[in-house]
Amino acid sequence: MHHHSAVWNALIYGRKLWALVPPARATFGKVARQHPLDSDWYKVWLGRGATGRTKADANADTKGGTKRAGGRAQRYIFCEQEAESLVYLPSSWAHATLNLEEGVAVGGFLHDEGSLGLHMQLLHAPRGMGSLQNAATLHRGWYQNVAPAFPELGA
């Protein structure tokens, strides 16, 4: 999961799952040594039954929240975005997405004075070997490992 300034996402076709955590419940960056991708939201989503609720959800109703690393309460809000719909996500909401079907979407950041400077720096930052994009493009070993999954691209 990660967070940033406010964003919008218009889904033209397909389905997209959003896992959300309001700023007041998010532990992102607050727990020592927590990696942004270290999250159990996907397992929680998979564990939801026909009622759409997990045992942890039921316990949260009586205990005030499920426990995460650091002992903070955190309950995920899940949203399935359907085709021809728009999602607006306010600033600082922790989130992760998963495409449930092939789809096409258009989206963007809504900048405020606090975030515009950072995004301008990222936009104009030089891209060298340190960038993931170039590392993936230039690293032959990576390509050899991934190529079998995409035979239509050829060797």
Automatic annotation (TrEMBL):
InterPro entries: JmjC_dom, JMJD6_ArgDemeth/LysHydrox. One of its GO terms (cellular component) is cytoplasm. Residues 1-127 form the JmjC domain. Gene3D superfamilies: Cupin. PANTHER family: ARGININE DEMETHYLASE AND LYSYL-HYDROXYLASE JMJD, TRANSCRIPTION FACTOR JUMONJI, JMJC DOMAIN-CONTAINING PROTEIN. This is JmjC domain-containing protein. It comes from Chrysochromulina tobinii. The lineage of its organism: Eukaryota, Haptista, Haptophyta, Prymnesiophyceae, Prymnesiales.
